[in-house]
Design brief:
three-stranded antiparallel β-sheet, 7 strands, four-stranded antiparallel β-sheet, 36% helix, 135 residues, 30% strand, alpha+beta, elongated
């Protein structure tokens, strides 16, 4: 190897390390998860100031959660890229129960459908969805 080859190899290696550092610093490629109920409530509060979540149904994998406040209003929080997005759950939201899974389809098509694995609690949260339609 010549000195020029060594310099080019060293420069290329330095560039690769710099790009890897930059990607990590920007949070790209991250796998965001909702850590716990407090984290879900904080995310709902960031989406709507004064929401005041009191109860949470968190997906087993942590990709999404439903947060309910004392007035019975609900907010769906989900991972979106390397951040989180939240939308109010209301009568226009379609809920579908399938054993331990609850799928919510928001009226906003770009938000997409979200399936939460809630275990035994899925039925209770599906019932709350029905209350929104009839309440």
């Amino acid at each position: 190897m010549t000195a020029t080859d060594l310099i080019q190899t060293g420069a290329s290696l330095a560039a690769v390390f710099f790009v890897a550092w930059l990607v990590r610093r920007m949070g790209l490629g991250a796998d965001p998860r909702i850590e716990d109920a407090a984290h879900a409530i904080r995310l709902a509060e960031e989406a709507e100031a004064g929401f005041g979540g009191t109860e949470v149904a968190r997906d087993r994998a942590g990709f999404a959660a439903i947060v309910r406040n004392a007035q019975g209003r609900m907010m769906l929080v989900r991972a979106h890229g390397n951040h989180f997005a939240a939308r109010p759950v209301d009568a226009a939201t379609v809920g579908r129960l399938d054993k331990d899974f609850l799928t919510l389809t928001m009226p906003e098509r770009t938000f997409g459908a979200v399936t939460l694995q809630l275990g035994r609690d899925a039925g209770m949260w599906a019932s709350r969805m029905r209350e929104l339609r009839h309440g």
